[in-house]
Amino acid sequence: MMYRKIAITGLLALMAYSNCAISGESRTVKAGKKLYNQNCTFCHQADAIGKVGFAPSLTNEEFLGTASDKFIMGTIRDGRPGTGMPPFAHLGRKQVKSIIAYLRTFSKLPNRSAAINAQPRAYGNARLGKLWFDDICSTCHGVNGDGYAAGGTGTAIGKAGFLNKASDGFIRETIKKGRSNTRMLGFSGPTALANLTDREIDDIIVYLRQLAK
Ligand code: HEC
Ligand code: HEC
Asked: Where are the domains of the chain?
């Protein structure tokens, strides 16, 4: 009997110990989930799956694989002026970080943001980019990239709130690969909605950059 009691106590101690080792991380994630549910669910929905034409998914695998913490952090802090995304500077850095830690638990792909943000700047022809944009992208992202305000299902990619935080690499990667399970399909390769060349994609990025000026 005595032996069994000791064995159980030992097991409980071991469990308490291993719990301790992960609690720093899980406490942050837990806090982030709570903050997310309090501040973000209304628009971005449970598990941040997004709502068509209302708020984008924040747990989409391509989004989490391409967006840096800095991009997500800055977007949450400053919001996106002229869109439905309000600023959350009042939450403070630590709380916003915990929200990001929670969102990152949905990651399925390795985060490639460092390499993506280090890609060369887009170089191209804004006039041609506008033709592509008006033809293909404006249906969802609105004329001038005004986003949901224009009645589309895509975000406001022509506004400074997005453009000032997104690198050319981030925009390029998103256009090429798209975001699975959203209306944003990839535009590169034979299975793409329209098979745009690298040059055409850069033309579009150069056009978008002009819109924010
Ligand atoms: C059929 C609709 C549709 C079309 C066409 C479309 N998009 Fe999108 N795009 C979306 C949606 C929807 C999202 C956001 C995904 C979500 O809701 O979770 C998005 C997201 C993006 C993003 C990321 C924006 C952000 O806020 O992080 C970029 C960049 C983008 N699209 C560029 C383009 C470009 C350039 C074109 C044209 C070549 C294009 N899209 C065509 C629907 C579309
Ligand atoms: C009142 C609605 C609303 C609330 C509340 C809200 N958002 Fe948003 N959020 C939006 C909209 C709308 C957009 C897209 C804006 C645009 O068109 O560019 C967005 C965009 C974003 C983006 C950029 C995603 C991308 O694809 O680039 C992030 C990150 C984000 N929100 C995080 C949050 C977090 C975290 C919270 C809670 C702290 C939050 N949002 C609360 C409406 C909201």
From this structure: 23-104, 113-211
